[in-house]
C-alpha cells in the first residue's frame, strides 16, 4: 500500500468517526499494518491553517473547526425541555378546560399546583394569562397560546384528541386506565344493585 493511499484511508476513518480515536484504533479501522502516527502528522500539517484542523487531544485525534473561525460558526441551539408530569397534567387541564384559574386546576388534579409549574409553561410560550375571573377575589385565569397549537400541530383546540384517541395511542397512564376500569366496574355494580331493589319480591 502506498503512503498516499494509507494517508487517504486514515483521513477517511477520521472523517467518518463519531468521536476522537487513538492511533491504534485508526490503524485498525484503516487496515494498516504499521503505525498511523506518521500519516496523522502529515495530515495535521496538510490541514494546518485551513477551515478545519486535525488535532490531538489526550492521545486521541479528531477534526475540529479552526479555532479562529469557531465564533463565526457558533449557533444558538434551543435545548428541548422535558416537562414534569405535573406540568404535562397542568397543560392538559388548561388545554381542555381553558380558561381556568389555579384553584380550578388544583380542583381537577386533586393536588396543589407547584409554584414554578405555570411559570415553566408560560416560559415555553404555551400558556398565557387570559384575564381574571369575575368572582370574589378575581383570580387570574390561564389559556393556551397560538404557539401551543403550532408546536403540537393543531389547527384549533377542536383538534385536541379525545379520550378514545389517547387510549388508542397508548398515552393514558396504566394507573389512569385501572382507575377508569374500577370506576366503570363500580358503576355497573351500582346499577345491578338498583335493579335488584326494583325487582318485586317473591310471594
From TrEMBL:
Q: In this record, what's one Pfam family?
A: SMC_ScpB
Which residue ranges have biased composition labelled Acidic residues?
A: 189-203
Q: Which Gene3D superfamilies match?
A: Winged helix-like DNA-binding domain superfamily/Winged helix DNA-binding domain
**Positions of region (Disordered):** 182-203
Q: Which domain of life, per UniProt?
A: Bacteria
Q: Mind telling me which InterPro entries this protein's record contains?
A: ScpB_csome_segregation, WH-like_DNA-bd_sf, WH_DNA-bd_sf
| Key words of the record | Cell cycle, Cell division, Chromosome partition, Cytoplasm
The name this protein carries in UniProt is: Segregation and condensation protein B
Amino acid at each position: 500500500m502506498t503512503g498516499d493511499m494509507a494517508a487517504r484511508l486514515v483521513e477517511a476513518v477520521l472523517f467518518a468517526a463519531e468521536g476522537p480515536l487513538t492511533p491504534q484504533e485508526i490503524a485498525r479501522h484503516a487496515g494498516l499494518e504499521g503505525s498511523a502516527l506518521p500519516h496523522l502528522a502529515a495530515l495535521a500539517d496538510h490541514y494546518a491553517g485551513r477551515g478545519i484542523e486535525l488535532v490531538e487531544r489526550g492521545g486521541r485525534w479528531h477534526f475540529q473547526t479552526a479555532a479562529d473561525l469557531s465564533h463565526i460558526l457558533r449557533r444558538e441551539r434551543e435545548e428541548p425541555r422535558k416537562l414534569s408530569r405535573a406540568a404535562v397534567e397542568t397543560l392538559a387541564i388548561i388545554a381542555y378546560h381553558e380558561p381556568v384559574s389555579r384553584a380550578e386546576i388544583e380542583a381537577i388534579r386533586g393536588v396543589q399546583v407547584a409554584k414554578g409549574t405555570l411559570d415553566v409553561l408560560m416560559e415555553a410560550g404555551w400558556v398565557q394569562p387570559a384575564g381574571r375571573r369575575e368572582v370574589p377575589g378575581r383570580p387570574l385565569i390561564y389559556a393556551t397560546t397560538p404557539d401551543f397549537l403550532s408546536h403540537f400541530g393543531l389547527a384549533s383546540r377542536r383538534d385536541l384528541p379525545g379520550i378514545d384517541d389517547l387510549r388508542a395511542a397508548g398515552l393514558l397512564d396504566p394507573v389512569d386506565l385501572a382507575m377508569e376500569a374500577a370506576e366503570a366496574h363500580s358503576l355497573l355494580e351500582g346499577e345491578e344493585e338498583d335493579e335488584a331493589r326494583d325487582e318485586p319480591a317473591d310471594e
